[in-house]
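A reminder before we start the practical. When you read a complex entry, don't treat the lines as separate problems. The point of joint prediction is that each chain is placed relative to the others, so the output describes one connected object in space. Small molecules and nucleic acid strands, if listed, are placed in the same frame. In the example below there are two entries. Take a minute to note the order of the lines before looking further.
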Amino acid sequence: MINMTKLWQSAPPLFGVQHKLTILEGRETMNQTTVHPYKRSVSIIGVGCTPFMYTVDKEETNGLTEGELFGYAALKAMEDAGVNPQNVDFYFHGEASPLNASNYLTPNIQIANWFGMKGKASIHHSEACCTGYYAVEQAVNAVASGKYDCVLSGCVEFGDSLAVPNHPYKREKVTMERFLQTTAWLYDRAYTRSLMAGQELIYDDAAEWYKRTRGITDQQMDDTLNWMCINNRRNASVNPLAIERRTYESLAKEAGFDNVMDYMRSPYNPRMGDFLRASGLELKCDGAAAVVVCATELVDKYMGNKSHKPVEVLGIGCAACEATTPHFEVRATEEAVRQAYEVTGVKPSEIDIFYANDFIITSHLVAAEIAGYLPYGEGWKYICEGRTAYDGDKPINTNGGRTSFGHAHAASGLADLYEAVRQMRGEAGEGQVKRLPKTAMLRGYGGAQNICTYIIRTAD
Amino acid sequence: MAIELEKVVETFYENLEKGKITGKRCTKCGAVEFPPVYACNSCGCWDMEWVEISGKAKMRSIVMPAPLSMKPEYKAMGKFAYGEIELEEGTLLNGVVRGINKKKRKEILEADALPVNVHAAIYQRDGFKTVVFDLDEA
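Here is the predicted structure of the whole assembly.
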């Protein structure tokens, strides 16, 4: 039995991060995994991403299909990598809810002919909102093992619409009632739904935990949540792929407020949770993203005359806590982050840019502090000072995060990777961070609840 | 002990119908799994025995229900909150605690009284019974 108390008391010298857990007299136990280095190095050589959109709302996008979205992202990634589809050995396909949204049982097969890989093997996976992160884990493992040299991993989601049964391309908006009905399927039928608390704590547990363990006030917590939304939106405002680009400053002005925080605290931004306001919720939408990885030793073979540097995947940590587990996001993030740092030898001080799946905005703060990217108990101040926006010194979710870039559930994780790689190449345009990042950490979360955290670094 | 195909879930709910709140205790390390499952998550042993839990517990965190975390049927529970529960047996889980509203939470937090004592209760939902907790009276 692993004693988490003892483990984390010994953690600071190892990771250089100060961790303070709720100590439960030695009863806080959670299984752990020792992660080993890859058998061979794997690098990201190409990324692709669609705009995130409400497809049925616009004539030019209404009627787009799974094959068209996934195929676009896949081909963009292959074009970016400089590879021909026929040279890609295998592909992974992620979609959080294919039966519900697409009426597909085997969605990887339904789109198999769209991007020049007919006959190539593939597999579908879903970890709900964490799918796009496990998309990287699985692709890297497939190459690191030596079985394949070059692999595509893509994800697609219609989070805002459902396939019209028996029609080849028409879709209809998903109602909130249907959305809530299907999100309930994320939770264990035998016990968790019955006991009620697990699925309801997703909205506010992390905020309660942060406020209590850091000793900040309700007002400070509220301001921090609001500032995360403001910063996310500022980031999205300079990202042409983001679904919502109107800054909160401009929305406040339109509504007659001189001060953006007065607007954020107003009924224009109502409380939806115990702590959470409407601005802190995902904008569920449609989109796709993809990545091509290959063995680092074969980069020259695959990339040909492409001039951008590959980005090496140094290591990935994964954990999961079913929703009955108290503080499931916190606990699983701690374990995944521990694995990632341990297997890579990277220190938190080496992380230049950070991404966190923040479909509940609080994740963004909690994950960054657990990772040591922001100092313990001080992260909320960095956020409220705007230091985590794209033009700050500690950038987080430079694409706008789930509350502004949008959340096409499975695809969002790979959209984060797309953004991280573009930033690391210096190709992020108006939203480029001040100092070219060399090392990034990305933390995925979802599916009640999977956590997948990885560290990537630009090759020398 | 041989691994057996067992209707653990049905038994758990049938026990609730009989007024008993049950979990599974590991015969090797003594950890109690609640709700009950096949194997011990503390040591991995699958030799587990049924045990009736005492019902004594502590609530370690408090989150109030809100529009996103409220369902119409929950109103029948009266005032309640969600939070981290630690059973006397050491098991940790997320649970519902009745008897807490915003005012009560404020009193608890201002008195720095967490964790607060609670006790398990059997609660009738639509078609089955489940387990909630009640705040102990001071």
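Discuss with your neighbour: The two ends of chain A are 41 Å apart (CA to CA). What might explain this?
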